[in-house]
Amino acid sequence: MCANLQGAMEDLIKVFHRYSAKEGDKYKLNNKELKNLLQEELSDFLAGSNECGVVEKIMLDLDENGDGEVDFQEFVVLVAALTVACNEFFVDFDKRSKKEQEDSG
Ligand SMILES: [Ca+2]
Ligand SMILES: [Ca+2]
Q: pTM of the entire structure?
C-alpha cells in the first residue's frame, strides 16, 4: 500500500466526487449525498452521535456560503477538523502508552 500525502489527497478528491456526482450538481453534496458520505466513509465519527438531525447540523456548520449544499472547499474544512481531532487522539494515546511503560518499568 502506497500511503503518501499526494495519494491521500487524490483519495479525498475521489471520495468527494463519488458522492457529490450522485444527484443534482455533481460538484456539490446535497443533504442526502452528505449523509451518505458521512455514513459510508466516516461511520466511526458518527457512531457516537445517534441523535437525529446531526447530519443537518453538520451541513449547517459546513455550508459557509449558505447555498444549502457542501462544495469541495467546504468539505475539506470538515476533513481538516476531523484530522486534527484524530491527531490529538493519537498524540494522547502515544503519551498515555509511554507513561504506562514508565509506570510499570
Ligand atoms: Ca450533488
Ligand atoms: Ca455551500
A: 0.81
